[in-house]
Each structure stands twice: as structure tokens, then as C-alpha cells.
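Please study the protein below:
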Amino acid sequence: MPGYLTKNESIAVTGVAQLQIRSLLDHQQFSDPQGDAERAGISSAAWPIFGLLWPSGLLLAERLALRPVTAGERILEVGCGLALASLVGHRRGADMTASDCHPLAGAFLTENLRINGLPPMKYGVGNWADATPPGPLQVQGLFGLIIGSDVLYERTASQLLAGFIGRHAPLQSEVWIVDPNRSNRAAFGHRMQDLGYALSDERIHSTATLTRAAYRGHCLVYRRG
């Protein structure tokens, strides 16, 4: 993979077999020789964010690992990055679709499926700002469960995400957002309320261990219908 360095990590998630995840070696990397990231509005500082494992993503994966798999239920992960939660759901037999706007997210997902011996999984480009009818490479259809982790980092992104959810969630649906106390949480909540969702706010407060840093945040569970 020219232009950046990667590493492999073994990730333990309760409820599934260990996963091997290929990620970026550090958070200082940038490679956009064809200008794909620039066209998607991704700055050089934000470019490596997709390719790192984040604490919120691990917590989301652990939550999904405990959820019963329901036949016929479609699940969408938004802003998936390395798609750890999607890989967990896919391994358990759920009908998963991962989505991100980063031009390399799909390639990293394909590689992580390969090194874990998993079959292909659905992936779609998730451009939250684009309300036009989706093209063949974009997220399409409705999903009974939409999940995401640490996606409320910008106020405008919070507003756009709510609109995207509104376009891809049926009347009866559920949304999970694991959030590390971002300040845009309230603005996103107002938008979700406008869409008819009721919020169950589950606080997360875990202490540090030998293998994990302490974490404080919320699991925002929105339901309607």
C-alpha cells in the first residue's frame, strides 16, 4: 500500500473470535496522490482518522457482539473507519453494510475480511451531505439498526448525519451512537427528536486496565416506531 505504513493487531471482542485488524501505523500519515480525499472534503489532518482503532469503536463492537442476530434485519454502520463493529456483526451472521466517505475505507475493509478468512461484506460510500438518489457505489435502502462511533466531532457533521439517518431508516428503527462526550451531542439529539426518535442515554464510565485506557462517554440509543 504505497504512501503509508500499516500494522496488524489482534483485537479481542467478547462474544466473537479474535479479529486481526490491519490499521495505519500512526496518525501522522497522509497520501492522496489522485486527490480523492480532497474531492471528498477530507483534509490532510483528518486523512488518517479512518485508519486507526478508536476506543469508541471497540465499545460499539462489544455492544453489537451481545445483540441477538435477527433474520432479515439490515444493519448499517456509518463513519465506519476500519469497521470493527461491522466485522463483528458480519462474523456473527448479521446482514451488515459498512459505510464511510474515506476513499480507502473500502480497501481496508476488503483486506481485513481477507486476513480473517471472512466472506465478502456489503460496503457503500456514505456521503451524509448528498441527498440526491444514491448511485451504485453509495449506501442504498433502509436499515432497521444504524450504528456509529465517535461521529459527532463537528456540529455540521451532526446535522448532516441526522439527515442521512432520516433517509435510510424505516419508521420502526433504532440508532446507536457511542460518543466520547463530544459537545455536539445535544445538537444531534434535537435533530433526531425532530425525526421522531426517543432517546435512551446510557452513560459509560470504565476505569483503566492493563490493556485499556479509562473511558467516559455515552451510548446514545434512539428508537422510534
The helical segments are 36-39, 55-65, 84-91, 105-115, 155-168, 185-194. Residues 6-28+37-224 form a domain with the Rossmann fold fold (CATH 3.40.50.150). Residues 155-168 form the longest helix (14 residues). The longest strand covers residues 215-224.
